[in-house]
User: What shape does this take?
Amino acid sequence: MESKAIEYYYRNPGYLEPNFEALSIIHTSFVHDTIFSSLDIMMGIKPTFDPAAAFNKVVLQGEGGTCRLINLAAKFLLHKIGFQSVNCFSSEVCHIHN
Assistant: This one.
């Protein structure tokens, strides 16, 4: 998986169709290209609940984040690509329904 693949899919949303293959590619990209970090919590920085802001921080700025923040960023990208029903529940675990 090439570096910054997630950013490419963000900038070219028509490149992937909203199907299982796209979901697999995006999931793999997030596993390999995002950084898990809890530094914001330790520094007292308030977390965002906005998926676009999470995507900007985690992917475009490359700062990484907590599980919740990374899942919000993934939710934002999945919506942008065309997945219609992405729900996040407790601990922001995302479930996709077709």
Summary: The chain has a mean pLDDT of 77. Strands lie at 86-88, 94-96.
